[in-house]
Amino acid sequence: MATMAQSLKTRINSFETAAWRYMRWSGILLIPLAYVHLIFMHIINSVYVINYQWVIEQRWAFLGWRIYDAFLLWFAGLHGFNGLRVVINDYIHNPIANRILKWVLIGLLAFIFFLGTVALIGAPLTPDPSVPRETLAILFA
Amino acid sequence: MSTLVLTVREALRYKGKEGQLAWVGHRLAGLGTLLFFVTHIIDTSWVYFAPKDYKLAIDLYRAAPFQIGELVLLLAVIYHGVNGIRIAVMDWFPRLWKRQRQLTWATFILTAVLYAPAFYLMGGHALKNLYGIHIPGID
Lengths: 141, 139
Description:
Radius of gyration of chain A: 21 Å
Oligomer: heterodimer
Helix content of chain A: over 70%
CATH superfamily of chain B: Fumarate reductase/succinate dehydrogenase, transmembrane subunit
Strand content of chain A: under 5%
CATH topology of chain B: 3 helical TM bundles of succinate and fumarate reductases
CATH topology of chain A: 3 helical TM bundles of succinate and fumarate reductases
Helix content of chain B: over 70%
Number of domains of chain B: 1
Number of domains of chain A: 1
Order of helices and strands of chain A: HHHHH
Radius of gyration of chain B: 19 Å
Largest interface: A-B, 50 and 46 residues
Shape of chain B: globular
Largest sheet of chain A: none
Number of helices of chain A: 5
Order of helices and strands of chain B: HHHHH
Number of strands of chain A: 0
Distance between the termini of chain B: 49 Å
Structural class of chain A: mainly alpha
Strand content of chain B: under 5%
Shape of chain A: elongated
């Protein structure tokens, strides 16, 4: 038993081990992060409440929400993209196609992280007055 | 592509019962959530990059087909989380492997229990704002 464990240990791919550990621990962290986000944004509030001014005034005017959203962006983004990497490895066995998809994946992840992070840091504390406020745009508000 | 066809065919042929269902569900829920995540970061970033166009994205999410999508998204996130806990707990306590069938069913039931109020309340927002239908608990 000990020799088997040892021989397994020598064959461990450290990147895959780190990726697996990351999935486990980020998954546990994402349960409160994602569930609270869903409850607050989709159930207490809704997409009928959310608009440009609401995002700035009710959410991003508070530093705490920006940090919260940053955590969700980075942890969920890396968790999801690593998941997709595993799926690609499961189904795309052609080495060239596999490699191309991995690069597309890294590019897309970088793009998403860039968009989200810049928006979280750069968005103003008060809404841009030139953006019109919603006047009961919904059918039966 | 042939790998994908093979995978789908064998997944249908393989009689893995609830364990396989849990695995397929976890994968589909993860991929679906990732698809929405990418879309959602792009639209939310418009708050900074294109504030005037943010309304376009929000109006799209308010439409009925996307509301159905949002209900599916809730189910996907709830299930992926609950099933993820089951996998982690089974890894930490290997003696639970003897009860994996019961634990899988517990996952399905807990998902349904958490999803039911979420479905009701989110669906209530959609009914009210899309069709003017008021259900109890939605002001």
